[in-house]
């Protein structure tokens, strides 16, 4: 029986550790429900370790065995009430999204857990709950029933919360939470009546696993979905900011062409209408689009500006790859800055160069101009416009990409976009 119980305890420890390690990776413990689940698991592991010490050290007088037995039993008893307190907190947190649980439940639970801890400590001196004889044998004390009564009351509080707030739970979650009460209580009754059968901690471990699979895992998926929806909302807001800006500047260019060259303006309106007809769906897209399509946007804008400024604006393309994806309206705001805040601030104008390069790890897009440039510390420069920050955030969210700006006053500016391979 001893070997079976030790094996069962060790197996239960391993089962408890798997979800704990999962929740501690990736900063998931920042979520309160996850932290409470970790606390439950750790307290259960403490009880399991105490149980292992009991089964392996009891009855032996080898050096350190009496110390290990006493330490193990203390850990076993001291973890039992906090385990149930953490479970009560877990239920309250689980229900908090839908209903506010009466604070009385929590306050009574805290008081009972504190009383239990004090009595456990006192028992180390007066043997009221348990003590050890000269042969290093664990023996229940006269007040042993009290050490079990308080956890039973805590169990009862947990059952009350689950049942009272039944309508705020899904049917599967209700039975899953209720099983955490029913199975351990049944195991505890068997264990009290038949000393030598270790079922309590195994029952708790099974229930923790059920909670993780049925509640914790689904809650994790819901949170991930909410984070994706939040990211989508941010992207929608950013696109709503940048789309009118893009359209306004293009129409401004056409309006100015009407004054200097009506024939060119007429041709520009025709090209722009064809552009809108073919690409409005892409402009509304929240997902990354082929770079080839994005390059089409930028070329369309640069051609319109070229019609207006003639020889003052030269454009060079050095495109070695287009087989990757970028967020919509990524390149166009950058070439717009290169034109408006770079080369056109020179009387004689200048050149905008657009390049793409593929490396082993990433795709790079660079936009270089030989315009007026600016000091990198000048945050009020036009290149700190909302368009660039907008591009930076969408690159990070959608492609894990980044944007770097290098500029020297009087020489020009280079903007480099890096997109890791495998990100879409």
Task: Label this structure with key terms.
424 residues; alpha+beta; 5-stranded mixed sheet; 11 helices; 9 strands
Overall radius of gyration: 34 Å
Order of helices and strands: HHHHEEHHHHEHEEHEEHEE
Largest sheet: 5 strands, mixed
Number of helices: 11
Distance between the termini: 56 Å
Sequence of strands across the biggest β-sheet: 4-6-7-9-8
Give the helix level as a range of percent.
55-70%
What's the rounded overall pLDDT mean? 81
Poorly predicted regions are 379-384
Tell me what the structure shows:
- Helix 3 (65-95) packs antiparallel against helix 4 (103-126) and helix 9 runs parallel beside helix 10.
- It contains eleven helices and nine strands.
- It starts with a helix and ends with a strand.
- The protein is 65% helix and 12% strand.
- The chain is α+β, with helices and mostly antiparallel strands.
- A five-stranded mixed sheet has the order 4-6-7-9-8, with helices on one face. A two-stranded antiparallel ribbon has the order 1-2.
Which SSEs are present, and which pair or pack?
Layout: H1 2-24, H2 32-57, H3 65-95, H4 103-126, E1 130-132, E2 138-140, H5 144-164, H6 171-193, H7 200-260, H8 262-284, E3 289-290, H9 291-309, E4 313-319, E5 325-326, H10 331-340, E6 350-358, E7 362-369, H11 386-399, E8 402-408, E9 412-420
Parallel strand pairs: 4-6
Antiparallel strand pairs: 1-2, 3-5, 6-7, 7-9, 8-9
Helix pairs in contact: 1-2, 1-7, 2-3, 2-7, 3-4, 3-5, 4-5, 5-6, 6-7, 7-8, 7-9, 7-11, 8-9, 9-10
